[in-house]
Structure formats: structure tokens, C-alpha cells
């Protein structure tokens, strides 16, 4: 759903109890997928539902590492700042 930008389907799934932080076999979360594809609206929805901004995939990447779309990256970085996420927290998460 997140790769194909099916925002309404994601909303339905989340409202029916799907985990916003579900991971696949490479530890990608929906936020990793939406960020990679530059789906700004979907990124907002996932963040509003409590997506883990510090989720690390099997390659050691967080969603913001994979985002090349500036408006989408701004959304993620603003959410990180609003949640009080610091560089120290990012480094500690990567190290664990």
C-alpha cells in the first residue's frame, strides 16, 4: 500500500488495528516505503498514527536516510524535531 501510495487503504488498515510499525523481512516499515517513494501525504498519515521515525532497516537506514524528496524529507525532519529526537538519539538507535 505504501509503495503504491494507497493512502485511503492505509488509513482503513490503521483504523482497523494494523500496526503502523509492521516490518517486513528486511525490517522495512511502512514509513520506510512511503519515504523512499516520496509520498508526502502518506508519510503524514503514518506519522500521525505514531510511526517510528527511528526505525532501522536491515541495511541500517532510517526512513529519513532513504528519502530523496525534499518536501517529504521536511515532513519527517519536522516530526523528528517535534518529538525531540536528537542526533544523539539517532546515533544510539543505530548503535543498538
Fold blueprint:
Blueprint: H1 7-15, H2 30-37, H3 40-48, H4 63-66, H5 70-82, H6 87-95
Helix pairs in contact: 2-3, 3-5
What does this protein structure show overall?
The chain is built from six helices and no strands. It has a single domain, classed as Ankyrin repeat-containing domain (Serine Threonine Protein Phosphatase 5, Tetratricopeptide repeat), CATH 1.25.40.20. The mean pLDDT is 96. It is globular, with a radius of gyration of 12 Å. The longest helix has 13 residues. By secondary structure, it is mostly helical.
Summary, kept brief:
Helix content is 54%, strand content 0%.
Top keywords for this entry?
single chain; 96 residues; Serine Threonine Protein Phosphatase 5, Tetratricopeptide repeat; 0% strand
Structural class: mainly alpha
Give average pLDDT, whole number. 96
Q: Please compute the radius of gyration using only Cα atoms.
A: 12 Å
CATH topology: Serine Threonine Protein Phosphatase 5, Tetratricopeptide repeat
State the low-pLDDT regions, or none: none
